[in-house]
Write a structure and sequence with these properties.
The protein has 308 residues and is α/β, with parallel strands linked by helices. It has 2 domains: 217 residues, Alpha/Beta hydrolase fold, catalytic domain (Rossmann fold); 77 residues, no CATH class. The chain contains 10 helices and 12 strands. An 8-stranded mixed β-sheet has the order 1-2-4-3-7-8-9-10, sandwiched between helices. A hairpin with a 2-residue loop joins strand 5 and strand 6. Helix 5 runs parallel beside helix 7. The longest helix has 22 residues. 48% of the residues are buried.
C-alpha cells in the first residue's frame, strides 16, 4: 500500500506475437549496459507491481538494463494503473504458458547478442520461468534465473487458498480473472465454446476459474489436468541453468510440505532458500520507517555476482 508503483520510468514496446496478438514489454535501456534483467510478474500483476518496481530500481542502480514482460491482458494503461490493456486473441495467460516468455527472451537475445541476460520471475511468473527452464534444459538465452514465492504445486496451492487467510487473497484474483475470461468468451464465442460463463459469474475459487475458463481456453481436460501438467514441481529436477529460488514457510499460497518436496526433487543447479517467515512476495526487513525487501535484494545480488 505504501510502495510506489511508478518509481521507474519505462519505455513501452508492443511485440507482435506469432499468433497475431500483442505482447506489451516495458524497458529501461541503460546506455552501455552489458547485462539485461528480464522480469516476469505474478498473477494479475504488471510492470507497475511494487516488487517489479523495487527490483527494477535496484538493477538500474547497478547499471543494468531492465525489460519487463507483461502477461497478456495484464499491462496497465500509462497514467491509469487501474485499467488493464486487453489482449486480442481467444486466450489468457496461465501458470504453464511459456511460449510468450520464450518468444520475448529470444527477441531480446537477437536484438542484443553481446549482452548477458538474466531472468527473474515472481509467483506465477516464477512458475512459468521454472517450467520453461525444465522443458528446455539446454537453453542458452539466459545465464541465470531467480524465482520468488513460486506455487510449485498448483493443485496444492489452489487447495491451500480455499482455507483461512487464503480465501481473502483468492477473492480479488478470482473476480478479475473471471471478468477477463468472460470478455474472451464474449468476443470469441466460437473459440471459447467450452467456457462456462454462468459458472464464472458464481466462481469463488481457483478450481472454478481453472475448470470453467483456463482449461477449456488452453486445451486442458479440466482444472486437475491443467494443474498436473503445468506445475513446475514436475520439471524442476531437469533444470541446468543456475537458479535461485526463495520461499517462505508461511506463504499463504502454498502449504509448507511442498517446499520439502521441492528440496527432494530439484536439480543441483537450483539453490532453494526457505525462510521461516516472509509471506508471499513479502520478506520485509529493516525498521517500520525504513523497510527493506530482503528477497528482492537477494535476487538482484544473485544477478550482480554472475554478471561480471
Amino acid at each position: 500500500m505504501v510502495r510506489p508503483r511508478q518509481r521507474v520510468r519505462f519505455e513501452r514496446e508492443c511485440l507482435t506475437t506469432p499468433d497475431g496478438d500483442e505482447l506489451v514489454v516495458d524497458h529501461v535501456n541503460t546506455p552501455g549496459a552489458t547485462t539485461r534483467v528480464l522480469m516476469l510478474h505474478g498473477l494479475e500483476g504488471s510492470s507497475s507491481s511494487v516488487y517489479i518496481q523495487g527490483m527494477a530500481a535496484q538493477a538500474l542502480a547497478l547499471g543494468f538494463a531492465v525489460s519487463v514482460m507483461n502477461f497478456r491482458g495484464c499491462a496497465r494503461e500509462p497514467g491509469n494503473l487501474s485499467r488493464m490493456i486487453p489482449n486480442h486473441r481467444p486466450r489468457m495467460y496461465h501458470s504453464g504458458e511459456t511460449t510468450d516468455f520464450a518468444f520475448f527472451a529470444r527477441a531480446m537475445a537477437d536484438r542484443e547478442p553481446d549482452v548477458r541476460r538474466f531472468a527473474i520471475g515472481v509467483s506465477l511468473g516464477g512458475n512459468v520461468l521454472l517450467k520453461w527452464l525444465g522443458d528446455d534444459p539446454g537453453q542458452s538465452v539466459v545465464s541465470g534465473t531467480v524465482a520468488l514465492s513460486v506455487p510449485y504445486d498448483l493443485k496444492a496451492g489452489a487447495t491451500h487458498l480455499e482455507n483461512g487467510l487464503g480465501r481473502l487473497y483468492a477473492a480479488s484474483f478470482v473476480r478479475t480473472l473471471a471478468a477477463k475470461a468472460e470478455r474472451v468468451a464474449r468476443l470469441f464465442p466460437d473459440a471459447a465454446k467450452g467456457v462456462n460463463v454462468g459458472g464464472l459469474r458464481r466462481a469463488t475459487t481457483f478450481h472454478e476459474i481453472d475448470d470453467f475458463a483456463t482449461a477449456p481456453l488452453h486445451g486442458f481436460r479440466d482444472a486437475e489436468d491443467y494443474w498436473e501438467r503445468c506445475s513446475s514441481l514436475r520439471v524442476i529436477g531437469r533444470i541446468t541453468t543456475p537458479t535461485l529460488c526463495v520461499s517462505a514457510m508461511d506463504d499463504p499460497f502454498l502449504p509448507p510440505r511442498v517446499l520439502n518436496e521441492v528440496t527432494a526433487v530439484k536439480s543441483d543447479a537450483v539453490e532453494l532458500v526457505v525462510t521461516r517467515t516472509g509471506g508471499h512476495i513479502g520478506f520485509v526487513a529493516g525498521s517500520p520507517f525504513r523497510p527493506r525487501y530482503w528477497a528482492e535484494e537477494k535476487a538482484i545480488a544473485f544477478v550482480a555476482t554472475r554478471s561480471t
